[in-house]
Amino acid sequence: MNDYYADLGVARDASPEDVKRAYRKAARRLHPDVNPGPEAEEQFKKVSQAYDVLSDAEKRRAYDMGSDPYAAGAAGFGQGFSFSDIMDAFFGQGTGGRGPRSRTARGQDALVRLDIDLGDAVFGAEKELTIETAVGCATCHGDGMRPGTSMRTCDVCAGRGEVQQVQRSFLGQVMTTRPCMTCQGFGQIITDPCYDCSGDGRVRTRRTLTLKVPAGVDTGTRIQLAGEGEVGPGAGPAGDLYVEVAVNRHPVFQRRGDDLHATIEVPMTAAALGATLVMDTFDGPQDLDVRRGAQSGDTITLRGLGVTHLRGTGRGDVIVHTMVQTPTRLDDEQEELLRRLARLRGEERPEGRVTNPADGGLFGKLRDAFKAR
Predict the structure, then answer these.
(1) Which of 11, 117, 190, 267 is the most exposed place for a label (fewest CB within 10 A)?
(2) C-alpha to C-alpha distance for 234 and 142, rounded to whole angstroms
(3) Helix, strand, or coil (residue 302)
(4) What is the mean pLDDT of the chain?
(5) C-alpha 117: how far from its chain's center?
(6) What CATH number should be reported for the domain whose range is 254-372?
């Protein structure tokens, strides 16, 4: 009979932890994948057989008393030697022994889109949000069973949730563990599923939430609502709900960062003489002081009337671009007045001045104004 203690390199009074530690060390050194060759393979079989005996209390007791540890019917090396022992040797844990898995699991996160107006982004708003998600079943309270019934222990795995299968390999007979297909790894079988949720413990329904949209959000901003997503199987903890904001296009203002840009058409006479115009903003009507001699592309800034900063304090600006409006239709009197003005200004035979846009002409002003923002 083999000296299993010598094969494994441990004393006869070695503890189970000492035995396991010695086997891990030897298995890493002698495993055929690490140390190929017939000699190493033979030594690996010896230490594996020694571990199979010394790690089992019954077999070790029989061996210490001088009996054959396999007399009870084990057929040589590998009987009872499981794949989890190899995994334990290399990774510190086996693949088996997990037991039945829980029917309760965390639910998935959900993503919905919310369309808002630009004014809601400027100041923030409260919105009613209707969503369709999974919620816990009120009939069975999440256990998936019809009221008044109970689960039955799986006959195949005896409630363990996993079954073992012996396969032959170059190591001998290797035992693998896998989830039980009959009970799907739960160990228990629902014989009478709930008629509302069909045993899932949750149902889909519409519900309405009140969402506080913070000031300063923009298209693409996501708001996280913890625990408002899908309820998990078995009425498990709910995931999170993510609300992605989309800001509708505004007929007047265009947002750039936290500034709001708009264009106002100024009559030619107002641009020449200067004027005060009124413009509607999100803060109500505001006076716009058009300076004397204003040109197309000039800007007027209304400080602090833009979008609220999402992170921080204060607001952006409203930036108004002027566009001088030239009349296209003149009556006789108006035309005579303009011709008289041209004579007074010496512009009866004007000569146009050609410039490079980069030098500050109209297009350069427009480009620079938009680029600066």
Answers:
(1) 11
(2) 5
(3) strand
(4) 83
(5) 26
(6) 2.60.260.20
